Fold ABC transporter ATP-binding protein.
Amino acid sequence: MSTPAPSLRCTDLAFAYPDGHQALFGVDLTLAPGERVALLGPNGAGKTTLVLHLNGILTGGEGSVEVGGLPVAKENLREIRRRVGIVFQDPDDQLFMPTVAEDVAFGPANFGLRGAALRDRVRDALDAVGMAGFADRSPLHLSGGQRRRVALATVLACDPEILVLDEPSSNLDPVARRELAQVLLGLDRTMLMVTHDLPYALQLCPRSVVLDGGTVVADGATRELLADDDLLSRHRLELPYGFVLA
């Protein structure tokens, strides 16, 4: 039986912006199907530049990116953008329709889903994030944690192969943070979580990759990386005061 293609494979990915700033220097990164990986690193490390290559928002660099074996290339962008679902840090970047259900339906409808199949996809996505009872509500009337989960549902409704989560725990109170973690742990999806929240990375992602200066400087078990004080110090990463690795 053939081995399934990795959910994500970046090979020798390098990219410079038009002003000459080199943001990535030969990044290699592979995620297996179903793997949950945290992408850590200080501000300016190249994390956002890397993420924007995963669904073709940025192109023109050197090296290659494949999602489920499909190259990220101009002729494949429609399918790539279905396969790679990015959940932005601010839900306002994703929620713009009058009701929750309409927001969740927008993506799959744009990919051609209609009728009962679309209604089923919306229902299933809202069920997955614990928001089924809010379909007819306005996103404006939801709490921050609820809005974050609805934003996640808008991406899940497109049935992506990879979920890319940009600072998912930011600005959430402890209860909303825990509720979101429970939802994410219950999803059978490949995940790449970009975060400065090291305890959240430990809770959700068995593996972490540290990016700094546009290169991968560490890749391993999250617990082992967070126990390396020298590594954290060199790359401006810090556990909360008083936090003790169990």
In short: The chain is about 35% helix and 25% strand. The mean pLDDT is 94. The longest helix spans residues 115-128. The domain at 8-234 is CATH 3.40.50.300 (Rossmann fold).
